[in-house]
Amino acid sequence: MAKIKPNNFLDIVDEVFTDATKHGIIHLYADGESLSGRTIGIEGKSLFHFGTTGYLGLEQDERLKRAAVEAILRYGTQFPLSKTYVSHPLYQSLEEKMETIYGHPVIITKNSTLGHIGVIPSVVSDSDAIILDHQVHWSVQNAAKVLKTRRVPIEMIRHNHLNMLEDKLKKLSSKHQKIWYMADGLYSMFGDAAPVKELLELSNKYPQLHLYFDDVHGMSWVGKHGSGYVMQELGNLPEHVLVFGTLSKTFGASGAVMACSNKELHRKIKTFGGPLTFSAQLEPASVGAAIASADIHLSDEIYTMQNALQQRISLFNDLLQDTTLPLVERNNSPVFYIGTGMPITGYNFVNRLIKDGFFINLGLFPAVPVKNTGVRITISRHNQPKEIKALVDAMAYHFPRALEATFTTPNKVFSAFNLKVKKVEEPKIQTIQGLTLQFAESIREVDRELWDGLFAGQGVFDYQGLQFLEQTFKGNLQTISNWQFFYIIIKDQMNRPVLASYFTYALWKDDMLAPEDVSQNIELKRLKDPLHMTSYVLSMGSIFTEGDHLYLDKSHPLWLNAIQLMFHELDRLDKALEPSMIVLRDFIEDEVLNELFHNHGFFKVAMPDSATIPEFKWNGESSYLKNLSSRSRRHFRTDILPYEAYYDVEILNHISPKQKTICYTLFQQVRAHNLGLNTFTYPIKVLENMSINPNWEFIMLTLKKEYSIPKKQSIVGVMFCYRNSGQTYVPAFIGMDYAYVESHNVYRQLLYQTIKRAGTLGMEHIDFGMTAAFEKKKLGAVITHKVAYMQAKDNFSMEVLEMMSNTQ
What we know:
Blueprint lengths: L8 H14 L7 E2 L7 E4 L2 E5 L12 H14 L15 H12 L3 E4 L2 H12 L5 E5 L4 H8 L8 E4 L4 H11 L6 E6 L11 H10 L3 E6 L14 H6 L6 E6 L9 E5 L2 H9 L3 H4 L5 H14 L3 H21 L13 E7 L1 H13 L2 E2 L1 E3 L9 E6 L6 H21 L4 H7 L18 E6 L7 H8 L7 H11 L10 E9 L4 E13 L6 H11 L7 E7 L10 E2 L6 H19 L3 E7 L3 H9 L3 E4 L3 E4 L7 H6 L3 H10 L7 E6 L4 H16 L12 H8 L3 E8 L10 E11 L3 E9 L9 H16 L3 E6 L2 H5 L4 E3 L2 E6 L3 H10 L3
Helix pairs in contact: 2-11, 3-11, 4-5, 12-14, 13-14, 17-24
């Protein structure tokens, strides 16, 4: 029925990165006439560098620099020829040295991203399947997506969740020859590692399991000859395991390397591997520098460097232990992550450290969930002990001040990362003077006159509408129909409302706004598991209602403080209810609110367009037509007026048990045809309560027998309409017989009969709600683009849906 524009994952990323750029956190330029590795120049200021991925500092080693210069002087700036035909003279030496480092055949690639694009489609056959760790690097996920065109199934598991992996193996093992699990060796945000040994044990239990590791962050600083974290854990490289390392980052040069002990598989990849065949090869300077680095790796000097780095890592760990900073993962890698929770706190913290002379990176969505923003600190051999200590002192000083400046607390940050709260005196959030908050769990606890003064005219959530919703969706045995209601009203000292809204806590389908084909696939799985990919959500408004759910007096001097007070109350509910997501909806785009919500951990998503007829007046059909465009008038005369005679139209306040069953069946048909907005079906109790509520009525279309096949009268359409106390008519839901929708224009006729009924009642406004905006516009509706803001506990469901949306 309705076409819903799905949300683009990249649009959300763009929003986040644009905001971070405004705060001066990303898209910066290093300045200065030279680089040392120890410091970095940003906007004319020299900062101690704690953001490098060159953990051993080899990129500044004089031997690598000289080798790169010499290679350019001997062979030129590049060797413009495909490696498939001829490799330039230095390549063979590099390959031999890398094979010695790994103890197995290798393939050199331009970089790891192109390497994955070349290798993954070569090693994964059409009879195989892929399982991705949720946090495996983007370059691996992107390369795997290419295989969807070959119908290779791709699944995803939560990060390092071996029980979930085993469940996937059991499901896939009977249908697929090999099952490739793809993961990072060392993860670049939190510095945690893949459970390599446990994965090897699992592959012994399931021989179809093959392992594919991206170990670029584990390279050089650990392992025999600096072969990396995965090789250290493996000891020897089995034939069912592939390992990607890097010649960039800690290795100090450029390029990537893949080690493979299966000689036939190695031959196959080298023979034809996409970009390995068609892309340019590494420049002579990069190969020359990589050879010089390989010589260091093959000497005992590499262990001296590794030990020197480990001493700095241990020092940093010990110093952090004496602070109350929320270290997300304590480990012996060079990567550390200090949580800040909300982006605005992260921006504040990073800018404070930059002003104090330290450069560190901010972990942002989508690398981490928005609410898990934090600073990523990397320790390198460039960092001196006194600078490491100075950084820890600066963080310990600025962290509580960043929290206070952004109205948050240590407990909130520790809770966001599921960390055990260290003993720390919790700073008191200053009471927002001049504002009081009323909290209620039923509309009966709220003053009716006050509520209707704010929300009369808004959908089905005036006072009586919420009484109906509570009667229908509270106290039900069925989980999907049992909601909790929460009301927030914030007033000033004069008892004047500044902010008001209501929230519901209910079970949602994760794919509610996903593309229709994605929901179709998920619904097949729900035939066996009805709650597959469902989560509890704390939402402004409810999935039953649409409209301006937030009353906000932006003319009031304390309106920003009122929003802050609302956020505090949502934090309390979040801690008590533990929803997977908090949703704020439905908003017309507002730059100030957009930045405010994002800074507090919410990302923007598009909602279906909303359609209304404001300032509605009905003086008969001819007067109504005069207000339509010429094109819309033609549409009316062609597609609506001729079909009006097909139907007997009834306006019913009450429906019989038989009519109730028919209406519910028609409503179910619409839901089944409208997976673009995929929600749980409502219980038949909804219709029962509508039928006894004086504010609800039913516009019933009965097809006359002369237009019906077989020749009998039948109900083919119904509009479920709510009369809002603010003179708004709300056609909230619709039911239709799809055997007649197209041939008899049932939907268009229901829209027109709704307009006529609203006119007869003297309504001043028609709220058509979401979906099918094009059809409503042709009948005079004004279309408004709406957005929502979501704060998710993690990105897992979102990324699974993104993966699925690229399947077709």
